[in-house]
Amino acid sequence: MISHDDVRRIAASLPGSHEQATYGGRPSWRTAARMFTWIRDDPEALVVWLPSEEDKVAMIASDPGRFFTTPHYDGTPILLVSLDAVDVEEAREIITESWRVRAPRTLVRAWEAAT
User: How far apart (Å, rounded) are the C-alpha atoms in residues 110 and 114?
Assistant: First the structure.
Protein backbone atom coordinates (compact mmCIF):
# COMPACT_ATOMS: atom_id res chain seq x y z
CA MET A 1 0.00 0.00 0.00
CA ILE A 2 1.23 3.50 -0.79
CA SER A 3 0.32 6.73 0.91
CA HIS A 4 -0.19 10.23 -0.41
CA ASP A 5 3.21 11.08 1.09
CA ASP A 6 4.81 8.22 -0.88
CA VAL A 7 3.29 9.56 -4.10
CA ARG A 8 4.39 13.08 -3.17
CA ARG A 9 8.03 11.98 -2.56
CA ILE A 10 8.20 9.98 -5.79
CA ALA A 11 6.63 12.68 -7.98
CA ALA A 12 8.66 15.49 -6.41
CA SER A 13 11.90 13.61 -7.10
CA LEU A 14 11.38 13.83 -10.87
CA PRO A 15 12.99 16.75 -12.74
CA GLY A 16 10.79 19.77 -13.35
CA SER A 17 8.02 18.44 -11.13
CA HIS A 18 5.81 20.66 -9.01
CA GLU A 19 2.70 19.98 -6.98
CA GLN A 20 -0.56 21.76 -7.71
CA ALA A 21 -4.07 21.30 -6.40
CA THR A 22 -6.54 20.11 -9.02
CA TYR A 23 -10.12 18.80 -9.32
CA GLY A 24 -11.67 19.55 -5.97
CA GLY A 25 -8.35 20.36 -4.33
CA ARG A 26 -6.85 16.90 -4.88
CA PRO A 27 -3.05 16.84 -5.25
CA SER A 28 -1.50 16.60 -8.72
CA TRP A 29 2.03 16.77 -10.06
CA ARG A 30 3.05 18.50 -13.26
CA THR A 31 5.98 19.51 -15.40
CA ALA A 32 5.48 22.84 -17.09
CA ALA A 33 1.75 22.89 -17.85
CA ARG A 34 1.25 19.12 -18.21
CA MET A 35 -0.04 16.95 -15.40
CA PHE A 36 1.65 13.55 -15.11
CA THR A 37 -0.09 12.12 -12.06
CA TRP A 38 -2.74 12.95 -9.52
CA ILE A 39 -4.69 11.29 -6.72
CA ARG A 40 -8.39 11.13 -7.39
CA ASP A 41 -11.18 10.13 -5.05
CA ASP A 42 -14.28 7.97 -5.44
CA PRO A 43 -12.63 5.58 -5.70
CA GLU A 44 -9.32 6.86 -4.44
CA ALA A 45 -6.63 5.97 -6.96
CA LEU A 46 -3.45 7.17 -8.57
CA VAL A 47 -4.07 8.51 -12.08
CA VAL A 48 -1.21 8.03 -14.57
CA TRP A 49 -0.58 8.27 -18.31
CA LEU A 50 0.77 5.39 -20.37
CA PRO A 51 2.40 5.46 -23.82
CA SER A 52 -0.73 4.03 -25.46
CA GLU A 53 -4.26 2.84 -24.85
CA GLU A 54 -3.06 -0.66 -25.75
CA ASP A 55 -0.64 -0.52 -22.80
CA LYS A 56 -3.56 0.49 -20.58
CA VAL A 57 -5.70 -2.45 -21.75
CA ALA A 58 -2.81 -4.86 -21.19
CA MET A 59 -2.16 -3.61 -17.66
CA ILE A 60 -5.82 -3.86 -16.69
CA ALA A 61 -6.00 -7.38 -18.15
CA SER A 62 -2.85 -8.38 -16.23
CA ASP A 63 -4.32 -7.46 -12.85
CA PRO A 64 -7.77 -5.82 -12.69
CA GLY A 65 -7.52 -5.73 -8.89
CA ARG A 66 -4.68 -3.22 -9.10
CA PHE A 67 -5.32 -1.46 -12.41
CA PHE A 68 -8.65 -0.17 -13.67
CA THR A 69 -10.45 2.57 -15.53
CA THR A 70 -13.78 4.37 -15.52
CA PRO A 71 -15.97 5.43 -18.45
CA HIS A 72 -14.54 8.96 -18.12
CA TYR A 73 -11.14 7.65 -19.24
CA ASP A 74 -12.35 5.38 -22.06
CA GLY A 75 -10.45 6.01 -25.28
CA THR A 76 -7.44 7.50 -23.50
CA PRO A 77 -4.11 6.08 -22.29
CA ILE A 78 -4.96 7.10 -18.71
CA LEU A 79 -4.81 4.32 -16.11
CA LEU A 80 -6.13 4.23 -12.55
CA VAL A 81 -3.99 2.43 -9.96
CA SER A 82 -5.42 1.29 -6.64
CA LEU A 83 -3.29 2.87 -3.89
CA ASP A 84 -3.78 -0.09 -1.59
CA ALA A 85 -2.66 -2.63 -4.19
CA VAL A 86 0.83 -1.39 -5.13
CA ASP A 87 4.02 -0.95 -3.16
CA VAL A 88 6.41 1.99 -3.25
CA GLU A 89 8.78 0.49 -5.85
CA GLU A 90 5.96 -0.36 -8.25
CA ALA A 91 4.45 3.09 -7.72
CA ARG A 92 7.86 4.64 -8.49
CA GLU A 93 8.02 2.73 -11.80
CA ILE A 94 4.46 3.68 -12.77
CA ILE A 95 4.79 7.36 -11.83
CA THR A 96 8.17 7.64 -13.56
CA GLU A 97 6.76 6.13 -16.75
CA SER A 98 3.88 8.59 -16.63
CA TRP A 99 6.37 11.44 -16.18
CA ARG A 100 8.32 10.18 -19.21
CA VAL A 101 5.13 10.22 -21.30
CA ARG A 102 4.07 13.73 -20.24
CA ALA A 103 7.26 15.69 -19.50
CA PRO A 104 8.99 17.80 -22.15
CA ARG A 105 11.23 15.62 -24.37
CA THR A 106 14.32 17.73 -23.61
CA LEU A 107 13.79 17.22 -19.87
CA VAL A 108 13.34 13.45 -20.29
CA ARG A 109 16.45 13.14 -22.50
CA ALA A 110 18.57 15.13 -20.04
CA TRP A 111 17.36 13.01 -17.11
CA GLU A 112 17.97 9.74 -18.97
CA ALA A 113 21.47 10.87 -19.96
CA ALA A 114 22.26 11.65 -16.31
CA THR A 115 20.97 8.34 -14.90
Answer: 6
